[in-house]
Amino acid sequence: MTDLSTLPITEAVAVSSQDNLHQLVQQCHTDSVSMYPLGGQTSLGFGVPARTEGIGIDLRGINQVIDFPVRDLTITVEAGILMSDLNALLAAEGLMLPLHVPQMSNATLGGVIATNTNGPGRFGYGTVRDYVIGIRALSGDAQVYNAGGRVVKNVAGYDFCKLLTGSLGTLGIITQVTMKLKPIPTRQATVIAPVNDVQHADRVVAELMNSMVRPVAIEYLQG
C-alpha cells in the first residue's frame, strides 16, 4: 500500500541529512506535532490505523553508505537507502543481504526493518532480525540512541536491534543501521515441480528436508 491518504498527515517533509532530521524532530517535539516516518511507502497498511493528525517525514534523502569493510561481511548505511541500490552495491563485491523483500526498487532498508518485512528466503536465510547488528534511532523528543555495533558478536546490554525491528516507528525513527552480510552462493538453482495437492506438497517438502538438498525458499502456487 502506497497511498499517503491512509495516514492522517497534513504534509510530507523530506529530510536530506541526519542533522536535518534531528532539527525537524526537535521542532515537532517543541510544537507537540505528531510525526510519521516514511520510507519507500510500500507498507503503509501495516499496524493499527493512525488517528492523530501530524506530518510525514520522508527519509529517502538519508541514504549514504557510512562504512563498508568488505572482509568483515558487514555494512553500515543510512536507513533511507533503497534496497535495490544496496543490493547492487553488495553484488559488486560478491555479497548479499538475503531478505528478498517485494518492491525492492521502492522499499528502503529502514522501512524493511521497521515493518519486519521478509520474503520467501526467510526459510533458509532467516529474517530481518537475524541481520541487524547495529542501529541508531531518534526518539520522539529528539534524543539519539545507539544499540549494537559493527561486529557480529556483540551481545552487550539490551538487544534494541531486535526491539526496533518491526516496531513500525513507534519507538523511534531509525536513521542508521549496520547489517551483517553473506557471500553470494557460487551455484544456485530454481526448481519448479508440479504437485497434486497440498498434502502432496507437504510430503515433497518433508522428503527434501531429510535429503542432502537444503532449499532456501519454498513457495506453493495454486491456480
Binned, the helix content reads 10-25%
The percent range for strand residues is 15-25%
Number of domains: 3
CATH architecture of the largest domain: 2-Layer Sandwich
Element string (H = helix, E = strand): EHEEEEHEHHEEHEEH
CATH topological fold name of the largest domain: Uridine Diphospho-n-acetylenolpyruvylglucosamine Reductase, domain 3
Unreliable stretches covering 5 or more consecutive residues:
none
Q: How many distinct helices? A: 6
How confident is the prediction overall: mean pLDDT?
A: 91
Largest sheet data:
5 strands, antiparallel
Query: How many extended strands?
Result: 10
Radius of gyration: 19 Å
Task: List the strand order in the largest sheet.
Answer: 4-5-9-7-8
Structural class computed from helices and strand pairing:
alpha+beta
**For the record, what CATH class of the largest domain applies?**
Alpha Beta
Distance between the termini: 24 Å
Spatial shape:
globular
Write up this protein.
With 223 residues, the chain is of the alpha+beta class. It has 3 domains: 55 residues, Uridine Diphospho-n-acetylenolpyruvylglucosamine Reductase, domain 2 (2-Layer Sandwich); 119 residues, Uridine Diphospho-n-acetylenolpyruvylglucosamine Reductase, domain 3; 35 residues, no CATH class. The protein contains 6 helices and 10 strands, in the order βαββββαβααββαββα. The strands form 3 sheets. A 5-stranded antiparallel beta sheet has the order 4-5-9-7-8. It has a 3-stranded parallel beta sheet with strand order 1-3-2, with helices on one face. It is globular and about 60 Å long. The protein starts with 8 loop residues before the first strand and ends in a 14-residue tail after the last helix. The model has no long low-confidence stretch (mean pLDDT 91).
